[in-house]
Predict the structure.
Amino acid sequence: MSKSPHRALRVILRVIALFAAVVSLLMIFAGKPVLMRLFLSPPEAEVSTLLLSMIKEMGGFLLMLSLMFFFASRDPVRNVAIVDALIVGLCVLVVTPLLSLYTLDIGQLYPSYLIWGRSLVRAALAALLFYLRPRENAAAEG
């Protein structure tokens, strides 16, 4: 019964962990044609071997993060630091695409409404996780 107050948080963390694992495996094992399709068909010269190598390394890092989210979903009260790091990371990911939109010429590659929409979804998810995160008082009582 002690875990029932954080059931929604556990489910959200497991969904995020599953999504991150699927995306990371796609990043690791996908070839150049698949990644070019996912990048909305950029010019051929924009997708270099170095970029593909970095995407595969980021996939390994994302796989590690997905495991952390899965372990945090098992006991969110003890792993509140991982939940807090996810919230802060989402807040950073709200700002950085918008900064790229205004400082770089990324508006030619992606429509700006997609970048704004992604940022709004991330902000909403961060707010939801902040609302559901275990509080200090609940951790002391339980």
